[in-house]
């Protein structure tokens, strides 16, 4: 966990081995990147299961009752009650 900004983790969250959660990020421009670092908060809802070696990137909000498949790279917000998988992570199943 790289927590340069707030990381909020809800109740009953399972984090499998090797999960990486990053709040730190950098500008895309090479010159600016030499001297600038910033961070974006991450929110993880209740009853979330994050599979092994999944990566959660800066600024992401993961909803309630979500399953993140092993090895997924979560680059965008995830709505409630879904399973996401892949690189980048996308919804593969509705859990409602």
Description:
Helices cover 4% and strands 34% of the residues. The chain is mainly β and 96 residues long. Strands 2-7-10-12-13 form a five-stranded mixed β-sheet, with no helix packed on it. It has a three-stranded parallel β-sheet with strand order 1-6-9, with no helix packed on it. A hairpin with a 4-residue loop joins strand 12 (82-85) and strand 13. It is elongated, with a radius of gyration of 14 Å.
What descriptors fit this protein?
single chain; 96 residues; mainly beta; five-stranded mixed sheet; 1 helix; 13 strands
**Distance N to C terminus:** 30 Å
**Oligomeric organization of the protein chains:** single chain
Number of helices: 1
Describe the largest sheet: 5 strands, mixed
Helix content: under 10%
The H/E string reads EEEEHEEEEEEEEE
Q: Strand pairing plus helix content: what structural class? A: mainly beta
* Strand line-up across the major sheet: 2-7-10-12-13
Number of strands: 13
Strand content: 25-35%
Q: Give the averaged pLDDT, no decimals.
A: 97
* Apparent shape: elongated
Q: Unreliable stretches, pLDDT < 50, 5 or more residues? A: none
Rg, nearest Å: 14 Å
